[in-house]
Amino acid sequence: MGEFDDRAFRNAMGNFCTGVVVATGMLDDAPVGFAAQSFVSLSLAPPLVALCPGKNSTSWPKLRASGSFCINILAADQQPVCDAMAISGGDKFSAFEWSTGVTGSPVLAGVLGYVDCDLEAEHDAGDHTIAVGRVRDFNVLQDNGTPLLFFRGGYGQFNGTA
Ligand SMILES: Cc1cc2nc3c(=O)[nH]c(=O)nc-3n(C[C@H](O)[C@H](O)[C@H](O)COP(=O)(O)O)c2cc1C
Fold first, then answer.
1. Residue 15 burial (CB count, 10 A)
2. Three-state SS for 50?
3. Most buried residue among 16, 73, 94, 141 by CB atoms closer than 10 A?
């Protein structure tokens, strides 16, 4: 392979379809969070999940400092939430309704479900890190809801049987 083609790599990886989550937290009584696709369920015993924050994220250092984060799984009609949470800086939460999970992190109204975690470990990984969360609480809030999907740089919906 010659010189690495960043754009081609991005485009190729865009063929892996994912859901979208918002990782939220609370620092100094202020809600913080950002949109992410890099979420995975990692371990059952003990219950662990992982998220990959970019090193340019301004919200992740706040979540790290709080020691906890909540993964909010976005529903199909929540692209506006995703758009707002993918902007760096500003008050991202005032336009949305949310309640507080066991770790103190925001649970956004209208999500399919959430996983509330304490930060267990963080591993360096190039221009991102791998944050491992130990699950303290989780809930499915919409048994019949469908997810917001992200594929080839665009959003879509699940059309199968769920
Ligand atoms: C669909 C989608 C997926 C994203 N996935 C990630 C991700 O996995 N990790 C990450 O750090 N940023 C991800 N982002 C980008 C962040 O949401 C964006 O950089 C945001 O501005 C960060 O805000 P912050 O500076 O408040 O942390 C994603 C954005 C979108 C729209």
1. 8
2. strand
3. 73
pTM, two decimal places: 0.97
Say if CB 49 and CB 39 are below 8 A apart.
yes
Each domain of the chain, given as residue ranges in start order, spans 19-157
Give start and end residues of each alpha helix (H) in 67-124. Answer: 79-85
| Region label for 28, one of left (φ > 0), alpha (ψ between -120 and 50) or beta (otherwise) | left
Atom number of ligand 1 nearest to Cα 60 = 27
Indicate the class that CATH gives domain 19-157. mainly beta
Of all atoms in ligand 1, which is nearest to the CA of residue 35?
17
- Cα-to-centroid distance, 73 and ligand 1 (Å): 14
Cβ atoms within 10 Å of 103's Cβ, excluding its own: 20
The verdict on the CB of residue 40 being under 6 Å from ligand 1 is no
pLDDT tens digits, 81-140:
999 999 999 899 999 999 999 999 999 999 999 999 999 999 999 999 999 999 999 999
34 CA distance to ligand 1 middle (Å)? 6
pLDDT (0 to 100) of residue 82: 98
Ligand 1: does its nearest atom lie under 6 Å from the Cβ of 150? yes
